Amino acid sequence: MSGSEAHGAAPGTSLDEQGLIERHFRPLATAPGAFSLLDDAASYAPPPGADLVLTKDGIAEGIHFLPGEDAGVIARKALRVNLSDLAAKGATPVGYLVLLGLSDDWSEDWVARFADGLASDQDRYGATLYGGDTIRSGRFIVTITAFGIAASGGIVRRAGARAGDHVYVSGTIGDGALGLLVAQNDPRLASLDESHRAHLAARYHLPEPRVALAESVARFATAALDVSDGLVGDLDKLCTVSGVTARVTAADVPLSQAAGAAVKIDPALLPICLTGGDDYEIICTVPPEKASDFEASASSAAIPVRKIAEVTQNGGRAEFVDSAGLEMDFGNRSFSHVGSHARSHAASHDRGTYSGR
What we know:
By secondary structure, the protein is of the alpha+beta class. The protein has eleven helices and ten strands. The chain has two domains: 17-151, CATH 3.30.1330.10; 166-347, PurM-like C-terminal domain (Phosphoribosyl-aminoimidazole Synthetase, Chain A, domain 2). Strand 2 (92-103), helix 3 (108-125) and strand 3 form a beta-alpha-beta unit. It is globular and about 65 Å long.
């Protein structure tokens, strides 16, 4: 957003890119190294004894959010999915860069609401805007590069889980995937209580990154990642890169009251909870001798965590079993965000024995 190339004025206003930057984004760039968005790049020097932790995620209209979504909600979701990655690495957020792709019918009011959404969440989570760009893209696209700091050499990677470690997950699983079904008026959730429907939809539209859990992850976890592509698939990733496995009983996975009510109505929704994306919770592995300290630390941070398995030595993907101890066959075990539209997210849940995706 420090560039000078013009991309045309919004309908009903004479503001070009520079005008948008000055009015809506410069107030967000409060760090000295952002140079008030008046230069071609920004600068940040991590404090002594700290490593810089970088992540980049993007969301696109029709794939990660539905057409017509509120601009402020889109901005907050885009920032939060990146902060979730930082939290899973045990990093404290510092700042971010944003690329905003505008649809052909963009308006200044839309951009103003987008900037207000960023302002709200950067104040909440302690990150500030360092720069970015705006382009015409045919539809709304937001890509954010976020960065934070962790103790030197202390980033918690996916690799590192060891046999005997306890597998923990924060919060609840499945709300994001079921929330998309609610937003699409899927008939499988038509009889669900309205308060439950509202909870699930809110969790899909605006996930809650576990930033407050980052310190606990940094202190106690041997491996971690956030649940963006589904619990099953993401635990597979951790196990594969760590050269271990874990056996999870599905009933041990924490579900919200809303998700639990949905699964009670239609048990076939459980695999969707386990394999669906957009939870943005944290999976981590913790040595048994540190488990009680981790749980106490998470409780102090007001983040619920639950042990769902123990790590075993043999490498391979995670095993999920039902109440009878039979391994669940999900078909596709992980959600892919490479698709033609958001509906593919839900429609792809209807394959496989357990129809995981």
